[in-house]
Amino acid sequence: MRRGNRLAILATPLAAPLIREVAREAVRAGALVSSLLQLPGLMEILLKEASEEQLTFVSPLQRLLWEEYAALLDIESEENTCELSGVDPARLALAQQAASVMREIVQERTLPDRRHDPQSLRWTATMFPTPACAQNAGMSLSDFEGLSRRGLLFG
Question: What's the sign of the alpha-carbon dihedral 130, 135, 139, 141?
Answer without folding.
Answer: positive
